[in-house]
Amino acid sequence: MSNENKSIIEFDFTLICEYFSAIERQGPGSKEATIKALSFVDNLNDNSKIADLGCGTGGQTMVLAQNAPGTITGIDLFPKFIDLFNENAKMYSLQDRVKGVVGSMDDLPFAEGELDLIWSEGAIYNIGFKKGLSYWKQFLKCGGYLAVTEACWFTPQRPVEINDFWMEAYPEIDTIPEKIAQIQDAGYVPVASFILPESCWTDNFYVHQKAAQVKFLEKYPNNKSAQELVANERREAELYSKYKEYYGYVFFICSSR
Ligand SMILES: C[S@@+](CC[C@H](N)C(=O)[O-])C[C@H]1O[C@@H](n2cnc3c(N)ncnc32)[C@H](O)[C@@H]1O
User: Fold this and answer.
1) Average pLDDT of the chain?
2) CATH classification (class only), 25-154+170-197+246-256
3) Is pLDDT at 1 greater than 50 in this prediction?
4) pTM of the predicted model, to two decimals?
5) CA 236, CA 242: separation in Å to the nearest integer?
């Protein structure tokens, strides 16, 4: 089907997928942060079952697979991301242990108590932190682990401009102590938490977008949706540069009782 025949919403999704498919990660993060978070997870073996929810094209999943035993199922809403995910698994010769499946993180295809580890970088916000914590817990074995990154405030107060931006984008953003309390309230034991370094946002995410944005705008010179998408991403990067001392992503690692 040509793009002209698609509804605006379908076309926007196609554009968003195309834009983010051009970069290795679809959110802030790094190989080092993934490995550090994994160092807090115990008891994985060749029989372990791991799920990576909102896996995107699998940047972090491949790192996970190279550093942890067991099988990994990546779940993402977008078929194009899952196609690229499975191509990446093949490229790294991980296809026997790593498989991407189209699905939604709020309707998981796992049995109760099936998983040893749930991983999710920069994605739980799609269903909300509290909902994700509580819904996902049933799929974890007793003593299983959950490792997620989540947007957090670093200070109790912040400038109006950045506060308003986040209140509109993701009102569930909160301070680290509040997030840890939410983890405990959902029945997990908080094991560790650490702030993702600034380079996870700049060198690993926004810098790669710069080159992708130029190509993207060249390909869609008169497309309003494409222009708006790039403008939004650029604004987000500018806000990060201006207000990075007030917010960022935090890795939370917790175990299920
Ligand atoms: C910011 S990206 C992070 C991707 C990847 N984890 C990373 O760190 O590079 C968020 C991902 O969540 C996916 N997503 C959005 N809603 C979802 C849902 N309901 N179920 C599964 N995946 C979803 C998006 O397609 C996207 O790949």
Assistant:
1) 93
2) alpha beta
3) no
4) 0.94
5) 10
